[in-house]
Amino acid sequence: MSPIRPEMLDALQHTPLFQGLKREEVSRILEHARPTRVETDAYFFRQAEPAGRLYILLNGQIKVTQLTPDGQQVVMRMINPLELFGCVAALSGGEYPASAQATKDCEALCLYDRDIHKLMQIYPSMAVNAFQIMVKRTHELQDRYRELATECVERRLAHALLRLMQQSSHREGDLIVLDTPLARQDLAEMIGSTLYTVSRILSQWESHQLIVAGREKISLAEPEQLQRIAEAQVFSADLKKAPLGEA
Amino acid sequence: MSPIRPEMLDALQHTPLFQGLKREEVSRILEHARPTRVETDAYFFRQAEPAGRLYILLNGQIKVTQLTPDGQQVVMRMINPLELFGCVAALSGGEYPASAQATKDCEALCLYDRDIHKLMQIYPSMAVNAFQIMVKRTHELQDRYRELATECVERRLAHALLRLMQQSSHREGDLIVLDTPLARQDLAEMIGSTLYTVSRILSQWESHQLIVAGREKISLAEPEQLQRIAEAQVFSADLKKAPLGEA
DNA sequence: CGGGAGTTTGAGCTATCTCAACGGGGGTGG
DNA sequence: CCACCCCCGTTGAGATAGCTCAAACTCCCG
Known about the structure:
Two copies of one chain form a homodimer. Chain A is α+β, with helices and mostly antiparallel strands. Chain A has two domains: 6-148, Jelly Rolls; 152-238, Orthogonal Bundle (Arc Repressor Mutant, subunit A), CATH 1.10.10. The first copy, chain A, contains eight helices and twelve strands. In chain A, the strands form three sheets. In chain A, strands 1-8-3-6 form a four-stranded antiparallel beta sheet. Chain A has a four-stranded antiparallel beta sheet with strand order 2-7-4-5. In chain A, helix 5 (153-167) packs across helix 8 (223-231) and helix 6 crosses helix 7. The N and C termini of chain A lie far apart (57 Å). The structure holds a DNA duplex (30 and 30 nucleotides).
């Protein structure tokens, strides 16, 4: 009956949302889920639309953005496979506070609000898990808020790249290539800056061989150095003085 | 057995966390809760402490702050009666990401992590409610993140005061007095600015009779004007030109 | 009647934004 | 297959919001 393939079920079962549920329970929950495909650049939902659907991303990648009344965009987060998005759907009568746009071709599972509440009553573990996921997410968002409030652009950019690295990247020789297609503008919108400033900083880092920057593609050569920029008071301008690694 | 007074139980039952639970269920849940008192300026918990307790504030007020490695503080949010705090306790093995300091004498109920999970399995509604509370909170935090990323200090400050007004304030004649004891420094830490800039903006607003600013006390005279500053491109500098209300 | 915490205000500085102009590569249509 | 075009990126120069530091001021409290 369910159109979910068994391997996918395995993966989903060990996802934070379904932690502690039996395989057959997960399977039964997913009978209510509708597979959805969305092509690159298309939207799962748009800001201010009535929020009725919650999604689990199976593969692809998604950019969650908020638009200000005067047209500026802010990138709230990137979503990678097995993550939840559109959680506002759990609130009755709300609107999506942001838009979800595919940055690659995506497959996802869709749950409707009317089912979510019911399912969580039947499988309390799922509700507890969802609670914990949101706690963690709030926590992460708080960290980024603190960053934005206290750190300069260079450090925020370093944090952003490191975060993207952890979320989704792969090695190619000595380089760690970020899997996320990222225009300068996108990076700027993630850290509350401008594409010009981002471009300048990336150029500077590239000239110090910390990264390799390309068209909508960024690779990290020296993540540890970036880490130092992100955390301590080391700026790329200072790198000449302390050429390579000391703790 | 339970040390909770009946009136308090009434109030709690209609709290977002206990929505939809029967009175006796709430009562049974609260048998696991331990009343806690904390005096003004003392802490419920501190950042980096192992997170084992979740609280429901009964009365008083709390300031949740995060400290950066280099000693700067950021005020994450103010907590008012019947709100939940310390939710990280729901995650096993975590640390508190922030400190919770009483800004007034406080009473709260304390739940321990080992009980939380159990209770949520028994009363799924509580888990669903907790999930929804966190969804809402993430949503609010996202809004503030967007503000911080895109708006200038003056607008952020206006937003902050309006938010404080909604959370906890009372009328005194023509004025709306904020119930929160707020030093300029605190306001600055809420909006990612400095006490100097905050002081300057408040002075300017006061000279336009939008507010009355005192020592750790602020009252709003023209919330609608503040709203316009917060939302539109009206700055206090422009107020002379548009002396009073038009839509 | 100090003393100190909280606040105000001035003056200078700088990180970052803005605007404008140019560059380059790759996809597309002729 | 070539050329053009468009999108993305770079770089410079100038403007500025807001930060920093320093100093004075005002309450409140003991």
